[in-house]
């Protein structure tokens, strides 16, 4: 009997679009784990981070799903389809803006594989959410 996956990592190739519109190839890792079922992570290597230590961007799995179909996002992360075969991820930080173009198929494959770890709608947020709600509501019944 096989055990269900608790995490997923997938390598992906992307293009970092520079301020001068030069495109630099970058290899990233897409990461998902059942312990944080609503989030996906893009892990960037040290050579493209502001402080040479690498960078991980975390955002909603639902945002990834929406951004594959139409422009989506507010705040620090925005995604949108770019033609029939690419998706753009725009990341805003205190250090500036990063625009990264992915092949849509890579992101779709990762998203669908994440459903094998935790199916959509089956995200168990566990006791942490219950404790947070209890604190927020202050014992209100």
Structural features, described:
By secondary structure, the chain is an alpha+beta fold. Helix content is 23%, strand content 40%. Strands 4-3-2-1-7-6-5 form a 7-stranded antiparallel sheet, with helices on both faces. The chain starts with 6 loop residues before the first strand and ends with a helix.
Count of separate structural domains: 1
Helix content: 10-25%
Low-confidence stretches: none
Tell me, what's the shape?
globular
Give the structural class: alpha+beta
Write down the CATH class.
Mainly Beta
Whole-number radius of gyration?
17 Å
- Name the CATH architecture: Roll
Q: Got a strand count?
A: 7
CATH fold call: Transcriptional Co-activator pc4, Chain A
H/E element order: EEEEHEEEHH
What is the straight-line distance between the termini?
Answer: 43 Å
Sheet with the most strands, sense and barrel status: 7 strands, antiparallel
Binned strand content: 35-45%
Strand order, largest beta sheet: 4-3-2-1-7-6-5
Q: Quickly count the helices.
A: 3
Briefly, what is this?
The protein has 141 residues and is an alpha+beta fold. It has helices at residues 61-67, 104-117, 126-137; strands at 7-17, 23-33, 39-44, 55-60, 77-82, 86-93, 96-103.
């Amino acid at each position: 009997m096989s055990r269900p996956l608790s995490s997923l990592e997938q390598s992906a190739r992307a293009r970092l679009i520079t301020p001068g519109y030069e495109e630099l190839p970058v290899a990233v890792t897409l990461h998902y784990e059942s312990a944080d079922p609503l989030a996906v992570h893009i892990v960037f290597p040290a050579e493209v981070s502001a402080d040479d230590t690498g960078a991980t961007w975390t955002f909603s799995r639902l945002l990834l799903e929406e951004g594959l179909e139409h422009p989506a996002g507010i705040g620090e992360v925005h995604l949108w389809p770019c033609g029939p075969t690419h998706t753009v991820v725009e990341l805003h930080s205190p250090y500036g803006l990063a625009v990264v173009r992915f092949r849509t198929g890579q992101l779709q494959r990762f998203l669908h594989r994440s459903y094998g770890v935790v199916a959509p709608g089956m995200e168990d947020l566990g006791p942490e959410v219950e404790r947070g709600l209890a604190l927020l509501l202050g014992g209100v019944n």
